[in-house]
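[job 0412] stage=fold_complex status=start
inputs:
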Amino acid sequence: MDLSAIGIQTNFSVLDWCIVIGYLLVIVAVGVYIKRYVSNVTDFIVAGRGLKTFLAIATMIGTELGLVTVMYSAQKGFTGGFAAFHIALAAAIVTLVVGLTGFIVVPLRQMGVMTIPEFYERRFGRGVRILGGIILTFSGILNMGMFLKAGSIFVMGITGMASEFELKIIMTVLLGMVLLYTCLGGMVAVVILDYIQFVVLSFSLLLTCILSIRYLGWHNIIDTVRQVQGEAGFNPFHSEGFGTSYVVWMFFLGLVSCAVWQTAVIRACSAESTSVVKKLYTWSSIGFLIRFLLPYFLGISALVYITQNESLKNVFLPDGAPADAQTTLMAMPVFLSQILPIGLIGFVAAGMLAAFMSTHDSYLLCWSSVLTQDVVAPWFKKGLSSKTRLLLARIFILCIGIFVLVWGLWYPLGQDLWDYMAISGAIYFTGAIALLTFGLYWKRASRVGAYLALFCGFCSILGLKPVQALVGIDFSSATVGLTVITMAVLLMVVGSLVFPDRGPSFERKE
Amino acid sequence: MNFWINFWTIFFFASLAVFAGLAVVVTIGGFFNIRSLFKKLTNQVDQHDDQP
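[job 0412] stage=fold_complex status=done
writing structure:
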């Protein structure tokens, strides 16, 4: 999209490019330097289990507050108004409850596992581990497939860049930098860089929100959302907006993203002790709240700014309704490119791009670890050496990077990015939540029940719009997700009761 | 609708204030945690190098 053609110029200058490039080079240099601290596979995957509370919180929020989160959340704020805040509230409440009770994450840490499929093996056997590992990585890699597209749209929006070719080069270079330091430094590099990105992104987002309020005025923001979206822009239960089933789906997603999603759980597995795990989740509830809330607000601010600018209104709100998913994704970066001054815009862009890299590194490490530990290693009866596992993990990182590059460039989005993320993740977590909850808290949960729940969870793929178009159905992501989770739980219970296990139960250790 | 407007207004500004506080605390605390992590990993690397 070439906004200069309709007279819209970005504030992004040469100075801002220098800030961005300088910052990213420093980040990569630090990542490469950290290689010297990695001596084995445990250092590589869970940083030697040496994370203390504050660093664990920073790295948890640093990972979860990525550019992709900012983009899809801003899009939800743009299309849903203040009512979208309920997603942030749901995430915070659920994470706080997990932190206070230790639900799922404390037993996992007590068992000393590094990945969730490792738990599957201890509880349900090797076959469940391999199948669970395959579904988890399929879902996870599909989930991160849109990261590069979201990053590209952000760069186009904030810099005003219109050449698709230049953009692809930039995104490929960024991905290459992430691959380099993730391959070399593993989890140690990831946590240190997550910390730096937490600091930069937290303060730049706070500052951006304050500037947005100063620029637009709080009462103006409220009044404009009221005019454009009516009650649905504030009341999440309103039938013309999100609706009750969507709110329920969001509470479920809140639980999943903090206690079942591997990239979050790996932080619990990396923590020094179970008390650190509880503290980590209790404090991270604020992070899980903010990672949605601030971008929603920036999306709402973009809606207000665009509504009051005729040229932009014709592009982003043709006929008064939001344009297609790809266009609305660009609303927030275009808004930032208009209100942030030179220098600050470079700082914010650097923070966002660093966040883009931070999410990529964590996800690359996470899925390559699962492939190595849970899909390949279980096939070798004598086990694999630490060196071989490290090599395998690095090869998988490269392969996933290539997939992400190709997928991000050609997949037609067709729905809000958040809904794509939720449903692609659901392929794994709708089955996983049944395995984790019943596996940890119900002695009679059996292997057959686990297989049935995993296969059922895979049906969530029907929530993706291109898949729906292929099979000729049209359901919302919330309907598909809630139906599949209900079925997965039912199958877990019925399968366990009809086909019980006779093996020994697992042990927990501190 | 006024209930929701007031609710989200209070919720937003309260969250902003709490996060600002958390960001400062985690930034400072995280710095010291990194130092101790590096110490621990350096010791591990040294032990690893000492092994035959």
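[job 0412] summary: Residues 26 and 33 of chain B are 10 Å apart (CA to CA).
[job 0412] exit 0
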